[in-house]
UniProtKB/TrEMBL annotation:
Protein name: Mitochondrial thioredoxin
Gene Ontology MF term list: protein-disulfide reductase activity
UniProt-listed SUPFAM superfamilies: Thioredoxin-like (SSF52833)
Homology family: Belongs to the thioredoxin family.
Entry's Gene Ontology BP terms: cell redox homeostasis
Keywords from the UniProt entry: Disulfide bond, Electron transport, Redox-active center, Transport
A family per Pfam: Thioredoxin
Organism: Daphnia magna
Length: 137
C-alpha cells in the first residue's frame, strides 16, 4: 500500500499532520504550542479528544529526545489524541498550576481532567502503554 504524507501549516504555532492512504481516507493528528492559559483552556481542557501535554524547555536535553518521540507516536495513532506543547519558560503559570517541578513532564488530560502523568523520558514500551491507556487501547 502506498502512503503519502503531507504537512499543512495552519499557523506558526499549530500544525496538523495529514496522512492520506491509498484507500482514499484522510486521518490527522494535531500538535500545537500552547500560548497562554486561555489557549490551554480552549485547546486542552475544553475538547473531547484526549490530550498529551508535554511540558518542556528549550534548554532541556531530554526534552529534545522526548518531543520527537511523542510526535511520532501521535502520527502513528492519528486522530486519537492531540499533543499540546508547553514551554515552561513562556507559560510558567501553567507549569506551576500543574505542579511541574522538572522537565520533561507529560500530563494526560481527558475530558478536562488529569488522567495520568510522568516525569523524564520513558522507554518506547512504557511510552506506548501510557498513550494506549489514555486512548483506551
Amino acid at each position: 500500500m502506498q502512503r503519502v504524507i503531507k504537512l499543512n501549516l495552519i499557523n506558526e504555532t499549530s500544525s496538523v499532520f495529514r496522512r492520506s492512504l491509498s484507500i482514499g481516507r484522510t486521518a490527522s493528528f494535531q500538535s500545537f504550542n500552547v500560548q497562554d492559559q486561555e489557549d490551554f483552556q480552549k485547546r486542552v481542557l475544553n475538547v473531547s479528544t484526549p490530550v498529551l501535554v508535554d511540558f518542556h524547555a528549550k534548554w532541556c536535553g531530554p526534552c529534545k529526545t522526548l518531543g520527537p518521540r511523542l510526535e511520532a507516536l501521535a502520527a502513528e495513532k492519528l486522530d486519537k489524541f492531540h499533543l499540546a506543547k508547553v514551554d515552561i519558560d513562556n507559560v510558567p503559570e501553567l507549569a506551576e498550576e500543574y505542579n511541574v517541578t522538572a522537565v520533561p513532564s507529560v500530563i494526560a488530560i481527558k475530558g478536562g481532567k488529569v488522567e495520568g502523568s510522568f516525569v523524564g523520558v520513558l522507554d518506547d514500551d512504557k511510552l506506548r502503554a501510557f498513550v494506549n491507556k489514555l486512548i483506551g487501547e
